[in-house]
Design a protein that fits this description.
It is a single chain. Helices cover 32% and strands 18% of the residues. The chain is α+β, with helices and mostly antiparallel strands. The chain folds into three domains: 154 residues, 3-Layer(aba) Sandwich (D-Maltodextrin-Binding Protein, domain 2); 120 residues, Alpha-Beta Complex (Dipeptide-binding Protein, domain 1), CATH 3.90.76; 218 residues, Roll (Dipeptide-binding Protein, domain 3), CATH 3.10.105. The strands form six sheets. Strands 13-17-12-16-14-15 form a six-stranded mixed β-sheet. Strands 1-9-8-7 form a four-stranded mixed β-sheet, sandwiched between helices. It has a three-stranded antiparallel β-sheet with strand order 4-6-5, covered by helices on one side. A hairpin with a 5-residue loop joins β2 and β3. It starts with a helix and ends with a strand.
Length: 528
């Protein structure tokens, strides 16, 4: 169903495009695949929330139109001192919030102290794990003010780490956003729950998002330090889950950028308006270790062996997605000595073997002392997830005697809430990384990771990961490969496929660039 608010927005936009109106005043109309959960950078974990934040916020660094790291709020990309453990930044004096206030070093301190504070319940606080005193603060043994972040002056900011981090610049660019200190004090835990309780410092400010509606817009932030180079003043956004609806809106000229899937991609493979690229993302199955029915390595092995990942990507999705070979997606990390891609070097550790799957299923039934079992698989209500869920349901029920599979497909925000509540047995989730390093994916299975929704805990795995991640260079790389191989041997979680994304982009629009890690930034878009 097309949102009413979006129809109104498009109507107004169309009226504004009469002869004589400049491209500068023409709104760009785009879609988002699902509902966001928050605009709070400290609490966001889902990709849809990340999309709002990515378009409206800016950290010390940002990505340019070619997806290279360049200075954002900081005056320059700095070189660390103290053997890679100390970063000292000078902020731009003309970096401002959407209300005209200056962005200060204290705004970064406010944000990161709030994020590390256990009371905030920031599910992804682990992105601060390399900061001084992180562990003690997370255990409530030290005050959050002791995190290794200090405002030396209004424009001088310092980070103190406990170790050098090879991908730290990526974290600076996409994870460590400032928060307007006054706004946080005013709204407290309600910060980020809607557009009115959010303060932007990036090229756009968020308008019209109530926290639960499916249409809103971005308006150019006149106080943004680089506002003169933001060519499009308004971007209308509508949640459009159905690929057919998205394609029809595009064909009718109602949207200029949208995501399409499956059938449309197959039917329009040669369309000049379509761009397809792999994502730095993995779709994987979580098995809840705290639920009796799903707490079983035999079950994990059975499901992993019975699904045919090539069938999923080639027949079910048909959108350029690639079968998972291990926990590491293609392009995520390269061998520092040879330059070889880690995913290729590890090889395919996830073969299909129906006979083996049946043997593991028999062991599972014996383990549970049952002849009949009902399992629930939780997915998003997106086209892709529902199709993959239906495939898994069919292949599992066909090959596993006595099994009934129930599918539950929920809107993304509700799905995420179920993730954190541990309210699932088998869960199809997606994990997108913000930096090219396998530790992010491997860390999902560690005991201490805040998004290990399964509560799976393996002492040997934890030790392998910790030891490998403490090393540097080739030793670290080899250690992470060994960690990946062990994880896949016992199936701590079960990777399914690396998604591809297909975008329809109007030939009237330029400046939209995509990468393994990043969606397009509308600040670089322009009307041709």
């Amino acid at each position: 169903m097309i949102p009413i608010a979006f129809i109104i927005a498009v109507t107004l936009s169309a009226c504004g495009n009469a002869a004589g109106n400049t491209s500068k005043n023409r709104a760009l109309n785009v879609t988002l695949a699902d509902e966001p959960a928050t605009t709070d950078p400290n609490k966001a974990t889902d990709t849809n929330s990340g999309s709002l934040i990515y378009q409206t916020m800016e950290g010390l660094y940002k990505y340019d139109k070619h997806n290279k790291i360049v200075p954002g709020v900081a005056r320059k990309v700095v070189k660390p001192t103290n053997h890679g453990k100390t970063y000292t930044f000078t902020l731009k004096k003309n970096a401002k919030w959407a209300n005209g206030q200056r962005v200060t070093a204290q705004d970064f301190v406010t944000s990161l102290q709030r994020m590390v504070n256990p009371k905030t319940k920031a599910q992804y606080a682990s992105v601060l794990s390399a900061f001084k005193n992180y562990d003690a603060i997370q255990k409530s043994q030290m005050d959050p003010s002791k995190i290794g972040v200090k405002a030396l002056s209004k424009t001088k900011l310092q980070f103190q780490l406990t170790k050098a981090v090879p991908y730290f610049n990526d974290l600076v660019a996409i994870e460590y956003y400032p928060l307007n200190t006054a706004a946080v004090k005013k709204y407290g835990a309600k910060y980020g729950t809607n557009a009115d309780k959010t303060m932007a410092n990036g090229p756009y400010k968020l308008v019209g998002w109530t926290g639960s509606n499916n249409a809103w817009h971005y308006v150019k932030n006149p106080y943004y330090w680089n506002a003169k180079n933001v060519k499009i003043n308004r971007v209308n956004v509508a949640v459009t889950k159905d690929s057919s609806t998205a394609a029809n809106l595009f064909k009718a000229g109602k949207v200029q950028e949208t995501t399409v899937t499956g059938q449309y991609i197959r039917a329009n493979a040669n369309s000049k308006d379509m761009q397809t690229h792999l994502l730095g993302r993995m779709q994987l199955l979580y098995f809840n270790h705290q639920k009796s029915a799903s707490n079983s390595e035999n079950l994990r092995q059975a499901v992993s062996y019975v699904i045919n990942r090539k069938t999923i990507t080639n027949d079910v999705l048909q959108d350029g997605s690639k079968p998972a070979m291990s926990a590491i997606p293609r392009g995520d990390q390269t061998n520092p000595k040879t330059g070889q891609d880690m995913a290729s070097e590890v090889g395919n550790l996830l073969p299909t073997d129906v006979q083996k799957a049946k043997q593991y299923w028999a062991k599972y039934l014996k383990e549970k002392g049952k002849s009949k079992v009902t399992l629930t698989v939780l997915t998003d209500d997106s086209d892709e997830d529902k199709h993959v869920g239906t495939y898994m349901q069919a292949v599992m029920e066909k090959n596993f005697k006595g099994l009934t599979v129930n599918l539950t497909s929920l809107p993304h925000a509700q799905h995420v809430a179920r993730d954190f509540a541990g309210d699932f047995e088998i869960n199809l989730i997606g994990w997108s990384t913000n930096w090219l390093d396998s530790a992010d994916y491997l860390g999902l299975a560690t005991k201490s990771n805040s998004v290990n929704f399964t509560h799976w805990n393996d002492a040997k795995y934890n030790q392998l990961y910790t030891t490998a991640n403490a090393k540097t260079g080739l030793a670290r790389y080899n250690g992470l490969m060994a960690t990946d191989k062990y994880l896949m041997k016992i199936k701590g979680y079960v990777p399914v496929y690396q998604p591809s994304e297909a975008k329809l982009i109007s030939h009237q629009v330029g400046g939209l660039h995509y990468s393994l890690l990043k969606e397009a930034q509308y600040q670089y878009a322009y009307w041709k």
